[in-house]
Amino acid sequence: MLAPRRLAISLVRNRLSRPHTMATMSGPVSDSKPTSEGGPVESAIRAKLTELFKPSQLDITNDSWQHRHHAAMRAQGGDNGETHFSISVVSEEFLGKNTMQRHRMIYSALSDELAAGLHALSLKTKTPVEAQGNKQA
């Protein structure tokens, strides 16, 4: 019975002792730099999605620190800190497309990054009307 508790304490200590960085950009997309500099993968994601989808809002969060202990991440060089991202995109380009089609558009746009070690994306894709509906609810 002590083993699960020791594991939980170890995980908490590990999480508290290792600082992590999280870069996000929220709000309307502009030509100005984000407040927090991301790495090369995050920069490439931001540039490609901005160019292709001309989003009214683009939020990118680097979640890689949460997965750094996975053996698969260490084996593929995932210690670079840029393997897992949460991305929220609001764009007119999604009009008339279902969630699966929208996600395929994003994955297609980021195919080079996925081939080079980007491991996972958590996507939220909305049209401006859908995003406004969520704010009113």
Nutshell version of this structure?
By secondary structure, this protein is an alpha+beta fold.
Structure description:
The protein has 137 residues and is an alpha+beta fold. It contains 6 helices and 3 strands. It has a 3-stranded mixed sheet. The protein is globular, with a radius of gyration of 17 Å.
Kindly provide the radius of gyration, computed on alpha-carbon positions and rounded to a whole number of angstroms: 17 Å
Average pLDDT score? 76
| Fraction of helical residues | 40-55%
Q: Which strand order do you get reading across the main beta sheet?
A: 1-2-3
The low-pLDDT segments are 4-35
Shape: globular
Task: Write the element-wise H/E pattern from the N-terminal end onward.
Answer: HHEHEHHEH
